[in-house]
Amino acid sequence: MSQILLQADYIERLIAQGRPIVIHEGYALDLVEWIDCHPGGRLSILHMVGRDATDEINIYHQTKALLMMKKHRMGRIQEPWTNLEPPIRSPDYYINLAARKEAAKAAKANKAQPRQARKSVDLSSVAAIIDKKLSVTTCTRRSSTNMSVDPEKQPLVVPTNITFDKKANRDQYAIMLEKKEVEEGLLNNPSVDPETQRAIVNDYRALHQRIKDEGLYQCRYSEYGYESIRYGALFIGFAYLLYIKWYMSSAIFLGLFWQQIMFTAHDAGHRGITGNFVADTLIGAFIADFCCGLSIGWWKSSHNVHHLVTNMPEHDPDIQNIPLFTTTPTYMKSVLSSFYNFRFVWDAACDFMIPYQRYTYYPIMAFARFNLYMLSWLHLVSPRAAQLGAAWWTRYVEIVFMACYWYLFGYRLIWLGLPTWPIRVGFVIVSHMATLVLHVQITLSHWAMPTADLGPTESFPQRQLRTTMDVDCPPWLDFFHGGLQFQAVHHLFPRLPRHNLRRAQVLVREFCEKTELQYHCYGFVKGNGIVLTRLEEVAKMVTTLVDCQKHMAATGESGLH
After folding, report:
1. In which compartments does the protein localize (predicted)?
2. What is the SS3 assignment for 350-385?
């Protein structure tokens, strides 16, 4: 069966009917029986439907998992394959999905009726259902968004001499800015024509083989011995200062302990420690859930998608932060998130808050941990936490570990261990503010980078390098960043053990020189400056739009409000 040659139009028809078909190493994989069992979640597969996901699949999975995929092969495809737009990326995906489910339910109910009373399915009524649902929400398909390729040398230009006529509106303004950024992206990066991108992919695969040949996927466990000494020292410092009643100093040490130990949770979440799913999941859950009160399952659910659709405004949950922040004008159009199935509406709160986002960046990052608590519990009570197939048990492990965290931290430490309410409140605030640097590290590598989609022909390695920035630091300071300073390298090879990333960086630089892909790497201070500049540039766009709206509302030139 796997040797059958499948025509592209046949595969496209199956995808239109809802079949999750992904291309891997010249074969079409029908993952309909696997999608609800995938430990990485449904969305990781849905974003690859209709695409040649060979590189994404190979870097995320070990040999055993790759061999298992052969049983899902439908047949060979005619190469070279032209990528399709995954249905999940359509703004009408969830509407169409609901309509299909409703139609299937009606068909099933009709089939269950006695034979003599059975009626044929009224296709016109099904079409009416779809039309009705489609009319509920209309959404302009996104033109792509992009920053200038070099965020330091080519700051994004904010048009100030825009003439708005009566037909002008916020969407048109956002689309105009998006088109400009796409043009810059196409101009300043290697061509996205298939031939150029295939050459880049071939070099990337050769690089991947070189990394495997050098043994960089082998974890150096001795490094975690040194890591444990540092974690232990911070925890002992917290406990001792708490014992002598230096409460605020103790809170700082606890926050630093959280910041440092979460680097290892990140490693475990990517199976970069033992390579064994069960072992790394338990390590990650113990650190994230038990020690820090954060769901490793939630993190993996969003982070897997983030790696596949990096910096895509409608799809990457890591940049969906309005009304607090936006790094792209796309959100002015009120986009639908394919991750949350929620429409991020641009409203008066955005008009008010975004112009000040450069100044609110660090204060909000100081308290971002409270938002992570909420997202963690929302994930664990959602159906998504149960859609993990054989990994169903992870949900219950996380609930137990997080309950233990809140018993030890919330009840035993905060409620019983601290004497007064002012000290309790102060301890919570100070300990959580001490994790500020971690949240800055997390956002640093992407918030200053492009958000444009340069088209379905752009290769995986080019998009990852175009949307990700590394942080330059001496080797002795690696502990401070915990591997997050090598985000570009990490995005190319997510399972690579953290302590081998510095060596891999050398190989990635050589790869970029050969392929003429840009490798963005800045010092920590300069990187922060680039992020703040990007936030200010987008803020100016919003200010320009708001001022024009006020002018037109005052003069009666248009109905823009």
Report:
1. Membrane
2. HHHHHHHHHHHHHHHHHCHHHHHHHHHHHHHCCHHH
Q: Which amino acid is at 314?
A: E
Can you give the three-state secondary structure of 160-171, one letter per residue? CCCCCCCCCCHH
Structure tokens at 170: 């916020």
Closest by alpha carbon to 303, among 293, 288, 291, 292?
A: 288
What are the tens digits of pLDDT across the range 277-304? 999 999 999 999 999 999 999 999 899 9
For 138-190, write each residue's pLDDT tens digit.
Answer: 333 333 333 344 555 555 555 545 444 433 478 888 999 999 999 999 999 99
Residue 366, token pair as written in the block: 């100081």
User: Which one-letter amino acid corresponds to residue 242?
Assistant: L
Strand order across the beta sheet in which 27-30 lies: 5-6, 73-77, 27-30, 21-24
Domains in the chain, start-ordered, CATH in brackets? 5-89 (3.10.120.10), 194-515 (no CATH)
433, 518 contact by CB (below 8 A): no
Task: Write the pLDDT tens digit of every residue in 358-406.
Answer: 999 999 999 999 999 999 999 999 888 877 777 889 999 999 999 999 9
Residue with tokens 């050098």: 214
Q: How far apart are CA 95 and CA 93, in angstroms?
A: 5
The runs of H, that is alpha helices, within 448-523 are: 460-466, 478-481, 487-492, 501-515
- The answer to whether 74 touches 30, Cβ cutoff 8 Å, is yes
Q: CA dist 395 to 39, 295, 473, Å?
A: 12, 9, 37
Number of other residues whose CB lies within 10 A of the CB of residue 383: 6
Hey, what are 270's tokens?
Answer: 């990517």
Q: Are 49 and 86 in contact (CB under 8 A)?
A: yes
Residue type, 372: L
